[in-house]
Design brief:
- The protein is mostly helical.
- It contains 17 helices and two strands.
- Strands 1-2 form a two-stranded antiparallel sheet.
- The longest helix is centred in the C-terminal third of the chain and has 17 residues.
- It is globular, with a radius of gyration of 20 Å.
């Protein structure tokens, strides 16, 4: 798939139709997807605004594959904020898996394979394959939905810097997105702050520490009401709507600096500071995974 091969407009592809196309050969990168059949199974988005054009997304993905060829996981932190600022949507629109199905199967299956197909040979001599949920799956796993939602959850209003921090650590993006707690903005931002502190201090076993932090935050969230002890103002929906409408005339997102997100409100500093202190204590006290007890299949 190249920019010239991709359909010009995003559409929606039902999840029920996806499994037909995701053969073992496709997921191993050995077979091509049936592009004509996929387009026939898809439905156009009844909105002619420029935000559904595929060219800007395709250009971003091509640049990510060029920039991060030596270290594919490194593309997440670069791509997440730029994908979010390019695909300007409401949360309701982004919650449609059919949109992400179409992006993964019709617009950029090559990116899904590039980013998620493991290198090297498998232990049983069969071809390595990308798991189906990377093409069509929950928002915390699907190749593009996970990036868009990480940017949505970790941005502080227009500021995407916390997104770079969170998406720069695979344990954070893989684990935190599954937590209901990060729907509370100060909680998500405080977790990114703690992660940055650990990284700046060159903490050992950073991945284990991030997972321990996520577990502790989630467990405490069942008894502590973060939104009560750390209030957060409701987002400015009108500002978000204006930002989305501005997509019609917005230039392409910059590649060498962060784009600007919607000015729909930032987290209260008092709430963010309180939770940061609390999560730092969680992090220092949380037990790390006992690697001696890791099952052979996990090693």
């Amino acid at each position: 798939m190249t920019r010239s091969d991709a359909p010009e407009r995003l559409a929606v592809l039902p999840s029920a139709a996806v499994s037909t196309y995701l053969t073992n050969g496709v997921r191993a990168g050995q077979e091509k997807l049936p592009q004509v059949a996929i387009l026939r199974a898809s439905t156009a988005i009844p909105d002619d605004s420029a935000r559904w054009d595929t060219a800007p997304v395709r250009e971003l993905l091509d640049e990510a594959m060029y920039r991060f060829a030596p270290s594919r996981a490194g593309a997440d932190a670069w791509l997440a904020p730029r994908l979010h600022a390019t695909l300007r949507m409401t949360r309701s629109e982004a919650a449609r898996p059919e949109l992400w199905n179409f992006l993964a199967l019709a617009v950029a299956p090559d990116y899904v394979l590039w980013r998620h197909l493991a290198a090297g040979e498998s232990s049983d001599d069969t071809a390595r394959r990308v798991s189906t949920p990377r093409f069509s799956g929950p928002h915390y796993t699907q190749a593009f939905a996970r990036l868009w939602w990480a940017a949505e959850m970790f941005r502080d209003g227009h500021d995407y810097r916390p997104v770079e921090i969170a998406c720069g650590n695979q344990d954070m993006i893989n684990t935190a997105l599954r937590l209901d707690a990060i729907d509370h903005k100060p909680t998500a931002l405080a977790m990114a702050r703690v992660l940055k502190g650990l990284a700046d201090a060159r903490a050992t076993r950073l991945g284990d520490r991030v997972n321990a932090l996520c577990t502790a935050v989630n467990a405490a969230g069942s008894t502590l009401m973060y939104d009560v002890i750390a209030p957060h103002d409701a987002p400015d929906h009108d500002a978000l709507a204006r930002w989305i409408e501005e997509a019609e005339a917005a230039p392409a997102v910059p590649w060498d600096r962060l784009p600007d997100g919607p000015e729909d409100g930032t987290a209260r500093r008092s709430s963010l500071d309180l939770l940061t202190l609390m999560f730092e204590r969680f992090s220092s006290a949380a037990p790390l995974r006992d690697r001696d007890r890791v099952r052979p299949s996990e090693s």
